Amino acid sequence: MDLGQYNINDLKINELVPAGEYDLIIASAQEKDNKAGTGSYLDLGFQIIDGEHKGRMFFEKLNLNNPTPKAVHIAKETLKKLCLAMGIQPPNDEDGLLDIPFKAGVAVKKGNDGFDDSNYIKKYIFGKMTTESMGIPMPATSIDAKPWE
């Protein structure tokens, strides 16, 4: 692979998107062990699927398996809101969350202790997006096509 073809000045590393409402999908979802080895979390990669910031990603963790009951409660509430925004029941595994469009309010969290500022989901917007709001003509030409690609 020739890596010389990439201009490092064109790469956007950890560039934030402005606070606002966005159409998103979960592009990646993976269970990972926590650093303490006392549980695991669901690492979710959110991707913006339209507009000026199309393709941009940010990540969040849901502590669904944690020795702290409050952390688990917060993660379950977040998962519930996410599924409501997607218009689905909680799936059997993390793959069931992938590639389902939903709307959310994204905000910017100030970094501290050496961490940079980051994006996070401030609110989930309930109700399915309409095809009109996504700019998708109906009927779809392919069952396998992802309209945001």
Summarize the structure.
By secondary structure, the protein is an alpha+beta fold. It has 2 helices and 5 strands, in the order βββαββα. Strands 3-2-1-4-5 form a 5-stranded antiparallel β-sheet, with helices on one face.
Q: What does this protein structure show overall?
A:
This protein is an alpha+beta fold and 149 residues long. The protein has one domain. The chain is 15% helix and 32% strand. The protein is built from two helices and five strands. The two termini are 25 Å apart.
What is the topology?
Blueprint lengths: L19 E14 L6 E9 L8 E9 L3 H18 L15 E8 L8 E8 L5 H4 L15
Antiparallel strand pairs: 1-2, 1-4, 2-3, 4-5
Main beta sheet: 5 strands, antiparallel
Strand content: 25-35%
Number of strands: 5
Largest sheet, order of strands side by side?
A: 3-2-1-4-5
**How many domains would you count in the coordinates?**
1
**Helix- and strand-based class?**
alpha+beta
